[in-house]
Write a structure and sequence with these properties.
Elements (H helix, E strand, L loop, with lengths): L18 E2 L6 E7 L7 E5 L8 H4 L3 E2 L2
Antiparallel strand pairs: 1-2, 2-3, 3-4
Length: about 60
């Protein structure tokens, strides 16, 4: 019986990088966002500070 491999992120090595928030100097994490308020797609986010408020949504950095 064949086993399935886990899915890999399409952004590859960019997700393994450590990126610091330019405002708070906290480490950011690559996440995929879905939502009506924030633009959907892959973004760098400070997970500890993200609560969906307009202030934290303005700090999203899109992954190219």
């Amino acid at each position: 019986m064949a086993t399935k491999k886990p899915a890999k992120l399409a952004i590859g090595k960019k997700a393994a990088q450590v990126k610091l928030c330019p405002i708070t100097n906290k480490p950011m994490t690559a996440v995929k966002l879905y939502g009506k308020v924030a633009p959907s797609g892959m973004h760098w986010v400070v997970v500890d500070d993200f609560n969906g408020s307009p202030d934290t949504i303005s700090r999203l950095i899109a992954i190219d």
